[in-house]
Design a protein that fits this description.
alpha/beta; Rossmann fold; 6-stranded mixed sheet; 8 helices; 24% strand
């Protein structure tokens, strides 16, 4: 489904010649299968996010090719590239929700931008309620991530984990084949991390979506992924086959988790 063939990405420092170039990725080759959760790990500056952004052509290779569903996005004209991107969802570290829109409006926004199932009506009396078809699909996705009860709230009224689940719903609203996740749990506590990761596992199990998960948190990668690429200074140093772990104990609240851990139980 996703193929990197000897991909190199080079940047040139402003005012520098060829000697001033920096390789963010060097000769990276790997394949990601259908319905696979594939991790990418590495220290800061190892090229993780650059690799991720090449899958939806936010970055283009300097050399080599990235093929998604048999298509090299770099070879497409802009309109065709946008159509391909509709099949790829993106979840960001900092949620990227619009503060002045409700939760349901945030989730439905991609449908409006892609002119699917209607769009957003203009504000009337301060309202930004989505058109009925868009709202139905947005609420369906909010129910899927267990956030349906929060549809009329604004992002400021949500916790970090709730915001990230809304962001996942927004990424799924166009029914993508691939979901890209850039450090989706790095700003969350352990309880909310578990909730977000459980949501991503449901995405794969119930929708068959392929997930590319970038994280510096080894525990997150090991708990969710089938395989993981290890990057160091822009080079692929290996692909780990991840051993299946016993499921972590689930907690209904942070206080329950903290008490169990502090009184001598295992987190």
């Amino acid at each position: 489904m996703i193929e990197f063939d000897r991909v190199t990405k080079s940047y040139t420092r402003r005012g520098a010649g060829r000697a001033g170039s920096v390789d963010a990725l060097q000769e990276v080759s790997l394949s990601i299968g259908e319905s696979e959760i594939f991790g990418v790990v590495g220290e800061s500056g190892s090229g993780k996010s650059t690799l991720l952004r090449m899958v939806n052509a936010l970055e283009m290779p300097s050399y080599g090719a990235v093929t998604v569903n048999g298509v090299n996005l770099a070879s497409l004209r802009p309109a065709a590239r946008r159509a391909q991107r509709r099949r790829i969802g993106m979840v960001f570290q900092q949620f990227n929700l619009l503060a002045n829109k409700t939760v349901v409006a945030n989730v439905g926004l991609p449908l409006s931008l892609h002119q699917r199932r209607g769009g957003f009506c203009t504000r009337v009396g301060g309202s930004d309620a989505p058109a009925s078809g868009t709202a139905d699909r947005a609420r369906e996705m909010l129910d899927f991530v267990n956030m349906g009860a929060h549809a009329s709230k604004h992002p400021a009224q949500l916790s970090g984990g709730e915001k990230q689940r809304v962001a996942i719903a927004r990424a799924l609203v166009n029914e993508p084949d691939i979901l890209l996740c850039d450090e989706p749990t790095s700003s969350l506590d352990s309880q909310h991390t578990d909730e977000v990761m459980a949501t991503l596992l449901r995405v794969r199990e119930e929708m068959g979506t392929s997930i590319l998960l970038v994280s510096h948190e080894l525990e997150v990668i090991r708990g969710a992924c089938d395989r993981a690429a290890i990057l160091e200074s822009g080079r692929l140093t290996g692909i780990a086959e991840i051993a299946q772990l016993q499921a972590r104990e689930k907690f209904d609240s942070y206080s329950e988790r903290a008490r169990k851990y502090l009184e001598g139980g295992q987190e």
